[in-house]
Specification:
Helix content: over 70%
Order of helices and strands: HHHHHHHHHH
Shape: globular
Largest sheet: none
Structural class: mainly alpha
Distance between the termini: 22 Å
Radius of gyration: 19 Å
Length: 268
């Protein structure tokens, strides 16, 4: 029961990081693109390192114990790419809002401290919140199940997810605030998008707990690794490169990998 409670706490911590991002957006008068580029790179580094160095091989160990060396390795690789395909399909079919005129308005509002109260920005913010909630739901399942199997891995995943949820919170709250002038509403919608993660943990607890085994853990772990690598390569690094100056995003990646490596060594 203590492991279950700890898993829920890790997932809640990761989800609430969207609220942290929302608060940071309100306190920052201007957008620090250097910091944003470094932070996004750091998040990608954390996620890639923990996925490729730790989670993938945890999955392989579980599956080879249950299925044998060759078959277990095959299932690990298949699970890894299945995770990438799953999150890729989610990304493809979630609603997106990419009106270039609105992108320009967001750039303008970042230089201003006064809400421009444009209703189209509200649409952008709500679509972003919905998209992130859909993304966060499987992340919540992944964090919960990983923490049940190995609290060290669960903690590492929770940290990685929390780091990348902070800029997601900013992405939701800023357009909503500038559309409405209401900080409370912007924070609430940003906060709610992050709650999809603990909801995912509840679903995992109610539906998956009776079926958890070495094979189930291994498949989930391998899919988690694929999901996190996809998010890093498809979302975090391109966003970091957009604001990049003097290779800051790559230095962020290296720093994130080093931080996660040291954290895992200290927790071992």
């Amino acid at each position: 029961m203590n492991d279950v409670l700890l898993a829920f706490l890790f997932t809640l911590f990761a989800g609430l990081a969207t609220g942290v991002g929302s608060l940071l957006a309100f306190f920052a008068k201007t957008t620090n693109t250097k910091f944003l580029s470094f932070a996004l790179g750091l998040s990608a580094g954390v996620m890639i390192y923990v996925s490729m160095i730790e989670i993938f091989f945890k999955a392989k160990d579980s599956l080879t114990v249950a299925l044998g060396e060759t078959e277990g390795y095959w299932f690990t690789v298949l699970g890894f790419f299945a995770g990438m395909i799953l999150i890729g399909l989610i990304d493809k079919f979630i609603p997106k809002y990419s009106n270039p005129h609105e992108v320009k308005k967001v750039e303008d509002m970042e230089k201003s401290s006064t809400p421009i109260k444009n209703p189209d920005l509200m649409k952008m913010g709500i679509f972003t919140a919905l998209a992130l909630a859909i993304h966060n739901f499987p992340e919540g399942i992944a964090t919960f199940v990983s923490a049940i199997q190995d609290p060290t891995i669960g903690f590492a995943i929770a940290i990685a997810v929390a780091i990348h949820n902070i800029p997601e919170g900013i992405a939701v709250s800023v357009p909503i605030y500038y559309a409405t002038g209401d900080k409370k509403k912007a924070f609430k919608l940003s906060f709610l998008s992050g709650l999809a993660e603990p909801i995912g943990a509840v679903v995992a607890f109610l539906l998956l707990m009776p079926f958890l085994s070495d094979v189930m853990f291994g498949i989930i772990f391998s899919m988690v690794a694929g999901i996190m690598v996809f998010i890093s390569l498809d979302e975090l690094l391109p966003a970091a490169q957009k604001y990049d100056e003097a290779h800051l995003s790559i230095y962020g990646v290296m720093t994130g990998m080093a931080v996660m490596a040291i954290s895992l060594l200290l927790l071992a």
